[in-house]
Amino acid sequence: MYGSLSSNLQKVRAITARHSDVNIREFSIAGGSVGAAIIYADGLADKDMIDQHILKVLMNDVGEETITCSILMNKVLTVSQITITHEIEEIIRKVLIGQTALLVDGMSEMLIIGTMLSKSRSIEEPISEALVRGPRTGFNETLSDNTALLRRHGENASLSMIAMKVGKRASKDLIIAYMEDIADSDIVEEVKRRVSKIDIDDLPESGYVEQLIEDNFLSPFPQVQSTERPDRVIAALMEGRVAILLDGTPFALIVPVTFSMLLQSPEDYYERWMSGSLLRVLRFAAALISLLTPSLYISFISFHPGLIPTKLAVSIMATRVGVPFSSLVEALIMEIAIEILREAGLRLPKPIGPAMGIVGGLIIGEAAVQAGIVSPILVIVVAVTAISSFTIPQYSVGIALRMLRFIAMFCAAAFGLYGVILFFLMLCVHVVKLKSFGVPYASPAVPYRLNDWKDFILRMPLTMMKRRPKMLKTKDKVRKG
Known about the structure:
Elements: H1 5-15, E1 22-29, E2 34-41, H2 47-61, H3 69-76, E3 82-85, H4 88-95, E4 100-104, E5 110-113, H5 143-151, E6 159-166, E7 172-179, H6 185-196, H7 206-213, E8 225-227, H8 230-239, E9 242-246, E10 252-255, H9 259-262, H10 267-270, H11 273-302, H12 310-319, H13 327-347, H14 353-370, H15 376-389, H16 395-415, H17 417-433, E11 435-436, E12 439-440
Antiparallel strand pairs: 1-2, 2-4, 3-5, 4-5, 6-7, 7-9, 8-10, 9-10, 11-12
Helix pairs in contact: 11-15, 11-16, 13-14, 13-15, 13-16, 16-17
């Protein structure tokens, strides 16, 4: 930058010639003896703030004394966020995110004033993680609002938030949050290292971050948990985990994660321990039903009908009379139809989406039975499988189980019940070998940690859960209270 206002403005105009939304407002201060100018972007900068706290005070309250950056910052401008810069390129970057640049003739420095216009969605209940009992607040797309929700949870000076920049062409703010006196330093440093290595033009959503920092991109299982609920994030931080918040998305990320954690709901802890344990056991059972029921149907019908009770086997075979397809093709027809209906229900407008899914499923199932394409027992199997998949709290886990369900069906069609067992064993081996930021994905089952089983398949009373998970190697291993 130069000391001449006209020279600086000439350079700024040359750079902003392709930015039609960037405005330059020239005016005079110190009784008209000194020229000045502000640079701001339409729709990003708060014009009321510019008028009241910049233009008004500069044009009315600045006398004919020597004007310096220190005087303007400490005696004139009534704005809390002000920084000094010497680089024209830095000015343009700041202006294009909503800040205002102030140039004064005779000064080789420029002031960057925080005038970003805040237009954020109100705090609403998360749509994807609805609870019967629990807080009704959820994250929104503004990073400052999300960090404030974490701070408002309670007075806690150990809640640390580290700011980082991600994205090469469209830079965004990212926050790494953790409890300083609880989280393992090695996990925190590993999160920082992986985030700092992200090399991509733009990150429009936290899903990009999730895919770029996960341990094994070939695994169907998510190794990072995403959530819209601040209470879930706080609970994870209190256990010693680390949260990642990205500007522009309401979904926060939690690491490290285990498979059992993805089948848990915050409501498990808000209800009494017996109710929470029952609901959790139902979810684990529903996950197995969703994964294996169609493949077990295929294996029993095609390879092992002798394992079915006689009366039931006769009834099933009677319903299959006239069905022209094998059990595999029959199951694939219904499963693919259900997946198409599920996807269509998600993409349609909200008022008609759920109705279309339910009505479409009933109509297709009834029509397929009447046409003799599928058997009635298969319609029941597919319906139970679909309903079981809806109990999974995490959408990404439900998708993983739906993909693996088709692999299990082909294994059953090739080798019968032995194929299903072989598939399940290979899946268990994969889960046991998988890790999330150094923490075993199958923990606390493998490696076996008895103390962590108090919050595994069953949720023990809160009075018995006095220690934090051993798998996280926390600094403070005992919960307060």
